[in-house]
Amino acid sequence: MENIKFEDVITSLEQTRTDLQKQKEKADAFKRDAQKLKEDTANTNRLLKDKTDKIIERARMEAKQILDNLIIFGMVDMINSDWNKIHGLIQKLSK
């Protein structure tokens, strides 16, 4: 009877060891998967930041170009207005 109990204990311990080894392997696989997801997320975030930075920089450049054009056109309008005033004065003086 004692032999059977001892063998049962050994069998139970071996089964427990096998189960624990399988659980450890699953845990290790989950850990590897989590690390890969973390790295993938970091790479995706880096790519998104780079794209966002490029979009923002392009928008800034376009806004600056628009402002520069407005300034230039404003100066042209001002020059045209001044020219028209000067031209009007010349015409008045020449009469």
Q: H/E order of the elements?
A: H
- Count of individual helical segments: 1
E-strand count? 0
| Portion in helices | over 70%
Q: Please indicate the percent range of residues in DSSP E strands (runs of 2 or more).
A: under 5%
Structural class, by secondary structure, is mainly alpha
The description of the largest β-sheet is: none
| Whole-number mean pLDDT | 89
**Rg over alpha carbons:** 40 Å
Distance, first to last CA: 139 Å
| Form type | rod-shaped
In the predicted model, the low-confidence regions spanning at least 5 consecutive residues are: none
Q: Can you characterise this structure?
A:
- This protein is mainly alpha-helical and 95 residues long.
- 98% of the residues lie in helices and 0% in strands.
- It contains one helix and no strands.
- It has one helix spanning 2-94.
- It is rod-shaped.
- The N and C termini lie far apart (139 Å).
- 0% of the residues are buried.
- The mean pLDDT is 89.
Features:
single chain, 95 residues, 1 helix
Topology:
Blueprint: H1 2-94
Gist of the model:
It is built from one helix and no strands. The chain has one helix at residues 2-94.
